[in-house]
Amino acid sequence: MADDTTTAAAAAAPAGAPSGPTTLWVERTGTRRYTGHSSRGAEVLIGSESVPGVFTPGELLKIALAACSGMSSDFPLSRRLGDDYDATIRVSGAADRENEVYPQLDEVFELDLSELDDAARERLLVTVQRAIDKVCTVGRTLKAGSKVTLSFEIDTVD
Predict the structure, then answer these.
(1) Is the pLDDT at 3 greater than 50, yes or no?
(2) Rounded distance, CA 27 to CA 22, Å?
(3) Which of 3, 49, 80, 126 is most buried when burial is the number of CB atoms within 10 A of its CB?
């Protein structure tokens, strides 16, 4: 359940023109079903693996990692390959259900570098890896670990 200040902040933010940091929240829409929202107007459907048409939280984590790698490498790749280059980043990793973690996530970056010679290809891949290692916040957070806190805002009867 979103608190009133979060909902009010989202309603007050004009589409495409956030006045401050993006506010994120999820709202329950059914049994093990949620809709994720941003104050910029984006939505994503989230739920159990058995629910059609939704992403699981773990799938969103993996997609966030792949998207972060892609976005982090966009500048060096577009500078060398042109703005219209194609890229697909596949990401996988099975959950360890006993410990409720993903012990390993594997990304495969698919690029057509056939126009480059071996030396140019190697230089570009080193540059791309460095860019991802330097600016992909999601990957850096997963590698380093992150402190997560949880608090509760409870409605009570006066």
Answers:
(1) no
(2) 16
(3) 80
Helix intervals (H) in 82-156: 118-135, 137-144
Whether residue 89 contacts residue 107, with contact meaning beta carbons closer than 8 Å, is answered with yes
Give 38's strand partners: 24
pLDDT of 55 higher than 60: yes
Q: In what order do the strands lie in the sheet with 24-30?
A: 24-30, 33-38, 43-47
Answer whether residue 19 shows pLDDT above 90.
no
Contact between residue 76 and residue 136 where contact means Cβ atoms under 8 Å apart: no
Q: Which of 36, 37, 55 is nearest to 47 (CA)?
A: 55
The per-residue pLDDT of the chain, averaged, comes to: 90
Collect contacts of 87-91 with beta carbons under 8 A, ≥24 apart: 87/111, 90/66, 91/62, 91/63, 91/65, 91/66
Q: Which stretch of DSSP H or E encloses residue 6? A: helix 4-12
Say how far apart CA 108 and CA 89 lie, in whole Å: 6
**Do the strands 43-47 and 24-30 form a parallel or antiparallel pair, or are they unpaired?**
unpaired
